[in-house]
């Protein structure tokens, strides 16, 4: 007898090769996708970094322009005519009391009260970003200094200190003679620029530098702890008054602007910081990709292992058959998809073989079995009805009225099923359905409730037999939940105008809105194929043929999450089956 090859031979063939190939393909695709996303994220981040540096330069330039406009406005307010120039000279040349007398005298002569401390103080009210105002006149020692703490200002000796301030300087020109009389310095707060830079980007590592036309550092802002670039810039500016653009480009994204007024604006973003940010952003992707690879490998291995086990089941059964055990059958419940179909085909083949053997070697036994079945089939339905009626009467005699009712209901259902009539009245159809539900109620006491209602005018309405029972049966097969105690179904037949409406409602499990829409759509078609709803298809086609073209079946979800089925048609119009 031919024996089956060892199981190890099968495990080293196609399945393992497919498993390895599929695993390699899936892992490769995931890795390629992760690398592609990573590169795309990197280039997008670099692009955003370049855009951010340019936007920062434009923002700083605009801020300088705005501040420059403020400075010119303030300077013009202090020096735009000879009287104001004279007032400045008087302030620098006199004591404060003499200057106050001078201002009053000028007011009497010209009608304008020009008092420098008051004028300067008003500018702080107009512009909230001013830190200090300095006026230096060439013909006088010392200078005028006004600060946010001392807005009226005072005269100080020596040279003004401008360290660590963001200032703009302007020459003071006599409007009559065009002679340069001195210098005007306006120091602004850096905080508005710094706040704008902070809100401009999501990157860490942004640095911004502003130098005056004389190379003086007006702004040096950086978000990184490494100060090497900042030191390089400051050293280069002190030596050559030029920015080290080439050196900075190696490790930074940068944007540079030299304004027409001589300001040097430089903004940089560290490439290393961008790379760190990208890697930080991609950590979830990399972690998710790794987890996905592990899950896919596990599922692939599990799937192929399960498939291999199902193939082994088939091969083991075939090995037993080759050894002469023709009674062996493949367990179809242990196989799936095409292997299940293959198992069914093999089992069918084995059944046929066994049948052929039985036909040859067990003909006599088959003949005896056929004879016995023939005798059994001679029992007439009338005998069954009489027997059931005897059981019912015996139950009544024993006081078991509930059992008698069950036997009566079952007997009535049996008579109705064996009756060859094609049509019935609506009253009889609902009576048949009520007994059908009653049997379920007896089977599951205190779990099923039902209610049937019919208009008197519709009791004699003729319709095809078994028109409503399949719809109720559907509820007990698919919709009812026997673990609940509040299952309920109702049937109401009423006459609305000239139309008959039969409504079947339940509080069962219902069906999804998507599937309900598909079923309703197909019910409205002339040709319907409801493979998952044979009862609906049968009822719809039979009633449509009988009451066409007025018949309409509607199915919808109701407020208790169950289904409502409505059958409606014109009472007068019908066609014979």
Automatic annotation (TrEMBL):
The chain crosses the membrane at residues 21-43, 282-301. It comes from Enterococcus termitis. Its main location: membrane. Keywords: ATP-binding, Membrane, Nucleotide-binding, Phosphoprotein, Transferase, Transmembrane, Transmembrane helix. PROSITE patterns: HAMP. Residues 305-358 form the HAMP domain. It comes from the Bacteria. It is found in: Membrane. PANTHER family: HISTIDINE KINASE-RELATED (PTHR42713), TWO-COMPONENT SENSOR KINASE YESM (PTHR42713:SF2). Gene3D superfamilies: 6.10.340.10, Histidine kinase-like ATPase, C-terminal domain. GO terms for cellular component: membrane. This is ATP-binding protein.
């Amino acid at each position: 007898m031919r024996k089956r090859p060892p199981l190890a031979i099968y495990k080293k063939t196609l399945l393992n090769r497919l498993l390895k190939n599929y695993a390699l393909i899936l892992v490769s695709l995931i890795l390629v996708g992760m690398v592609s996303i990573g590169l795309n994220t990197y280039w997008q981040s670099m692009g955003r970094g370049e855009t951010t540096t340019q936007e920062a330069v434009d923002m700083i330039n605009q801020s300088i322009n705005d501040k420059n406009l403020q400075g010119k406005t303030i300077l013009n307010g202090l020096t735009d005519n000879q009287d104001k120039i004279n007032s400045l000279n008087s302030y620098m040349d006199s004591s404060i009391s003499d200057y106050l007398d001078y201002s009053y005298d000028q007011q009497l002569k010209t009608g304008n009260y020009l008092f420098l401390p008051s004028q300067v103080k008003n500018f702080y009210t107009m512009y909230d970003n001013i830190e200090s105002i300095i006026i230096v006149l060439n013909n006088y020692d010392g200078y005028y200094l006004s600060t946010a703490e001392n807005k009226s200002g005072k005269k100080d000796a020596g040279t003004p200190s401008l360290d660590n301030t963001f200032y703009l300087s302007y020459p003071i020109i006599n409007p009559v003679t065009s002679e340069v009389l001195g210098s005007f310095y306006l120091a602004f707060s850096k905080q508005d620029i710094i706040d704008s830079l902070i809100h401009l980007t999501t990157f860490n590592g942004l640095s911004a530098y502003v130098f005056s036309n004389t190379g003086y550092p007006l702004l040096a802002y950086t978000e990184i702890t490494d100060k090497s670039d900042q030191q390089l810039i400051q050293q280069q500016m002190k030596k050559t008054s030029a920015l080290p653009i080439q050196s900075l480009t190696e490790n930074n994204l940068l944007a540079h602007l030299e304004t027409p007024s001589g300001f040097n604006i430089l903004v940089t973003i560290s490439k290393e910081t961008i790379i760190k940010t990208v890697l930080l952003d991609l950590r979830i992707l990399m972690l998710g990709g790794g987890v996905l690879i592990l899950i896919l490998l596990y599922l692939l291995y599990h799937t192929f292992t399960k498939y291999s086990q199902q193939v082994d089941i088939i091969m083991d059964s075939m090995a037993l058959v080759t050894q002469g055990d023709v009674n062996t059958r493949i367990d179809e419940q242990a196989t799936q998809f095409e292997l299940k179909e293959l198992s069914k085909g093999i089992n069918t083949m084995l059944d046929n073989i066994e049948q052929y053997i039985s036909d040859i070697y067990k003909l006599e036994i088959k003949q005896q079995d056929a004879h016995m079945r023939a005798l059994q089939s001679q029992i007439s339905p009338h005998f069954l009805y009489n027997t059931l009626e005897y059981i019912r009467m015996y139950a009544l005699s024993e006081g078991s009225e509930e059992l008698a009712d069950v036997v009566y209901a079952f007997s009535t259902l049996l008579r109705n099923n064996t009756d060859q009539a094609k049509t019935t009245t609506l009253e009889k159809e609902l009576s048949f359905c009520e007994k059908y539900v009653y049997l379920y109620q007896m089977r599951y006491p205190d779990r099923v409730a039902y209610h049937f209602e019919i208009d008197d005018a519709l009791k004699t309405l003729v319709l095809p037999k078994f028109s409503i029972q399949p719809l109720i049966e559907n509820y007990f097969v698919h919709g009812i939940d026997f673990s609940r105690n509040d299952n309920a179904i109702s049937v109401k037949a009423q006459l609305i105008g000239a139309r008959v409406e039969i409504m079947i409602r339940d509080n069962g499990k219902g069906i999804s809105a998507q599937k309900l829409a598909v079923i309703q759509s197909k019910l409205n078609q002339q040709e319907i194929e409801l493979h998952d709803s044979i009862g609906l298809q049968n009822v719809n086609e039979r009633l449509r043929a009988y009451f066409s073209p007025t018949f309409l079946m509607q199915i919808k979800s109701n407020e208790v999450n169950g289904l409502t089925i409505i059958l409606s048609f014109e009472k007068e119009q019908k066609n014979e089956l």
